[in-house]
Amino acid sequence: MFPKLYAIIDAASLSARGGTESLIERVCDFARELAAGGATLIQYRAKDLSAREMLMHARELRRIMPPEVKLIMNDRADLCLAAGFDGVHVGQDDLSPESVRAIIGPKRMLGVSTHTLEQLKAAAQTSADYLAIGPVFGTVSKVNSDPVVGLDGVRTARELVGPSRPLVAIGGIGAEQAADVLRAGATSVAVINALLESPRQSAAHILGILL
Questions:
Q1: Which of 10, 24, 68, 124 is deepest in the core (most CB within 10 A)?
Q2: How would you classify residue 162: left for phi > 0, otherwise alpha for psi between -120 and 50, otherwise beta?
Q3: How many C-alpha atoms does 182 have within 13 Å on its Cβ side?
Q4: Sign of the Cα pseudo-torsion (36, 67, 175, 171, in order)
Q5: How many CB atoms lie within 10 A of CB 26?
Q6: Cα(3)–Cα(106) distance, rounded to whole angstroms?
Q7: Rg of the chain, C-alpha, whole Å
Q8: pTM over cut 0.90
Q9: Predicted local distance difference test score (pLDDT) of residue 141
Q10: Maximal CA-CA distance, the chain
Q11: Which fold has domain 5-210?
């Protein structure tokens, strides 16, 4: 069963918060707290780091996370394999879904971000295991974000992909909006900023609302 909470660790957001710990320590501590709060699907996103740094972080995340926590690498199929992650999530400007599938094979998870109905229709024809639609609401976690799709966009997306394919909603979603997003048709809500403060408690709170 696809988890209702899709937690995202954004290295840039953690880096911006400062502190005495190294970034890799902050990333790993954050992941531990998410898992302790009940998160079982976690994506690692580090768009500003070098491939070497990303791989170092990813390998440490895989080492410390229990196997029941599925780890998804943002963008990089090669680093997913090198770190032993469970899947890859790609956007519209990354490798095509089928190119990624050829790299990661049939067993690892593949997700695709979409921002328009045309993109969603195209992604639905690929071998992606789940599709993401957004931003549902306004978000500050992504520079030059696409126009919001709103709850109506989530409803339309569900109609397009059918009842069985997992649909992840992303963008500006917090505890207050999570239940409405699921009622609109999403299988799961992807959350970034709403987890930054007290990640264990925040994850548990959102899951309590959704379960």
A1: 10
A2: left
A3: 19
A4: positive
A5: 20
A6: 20
A7: 16
A8: yes
A9: 63
A10: 48
A11: TIM Barrel (3.20.20)
Q: Report pLDDT digits (tens) over 24-64.
A: 999 999 999 999 999 999 999 999 999 999 999 999 999 99
Return the active site residues: 45, 113, 142
Write out the two tokens for 30: 């954050």
Strand segments, DSSP code E, in 13-134 are 41-45, 70-74, 87-90, 109-114, 130-133
Question: Nearest 5°: phi and psi at 45?
Answer: -125, 125
CA dist 124 and 126 (Å) reads 5
Count of other CB atoms within 10 angstroms of residue 117: 15
Token pair, residue 198, equals 């007290």
Length of the chain (residues): 211
Cβ contact 79:41 at 8 Å? no
Q: How far is CA 21 from the centre of its chain?
A: 24
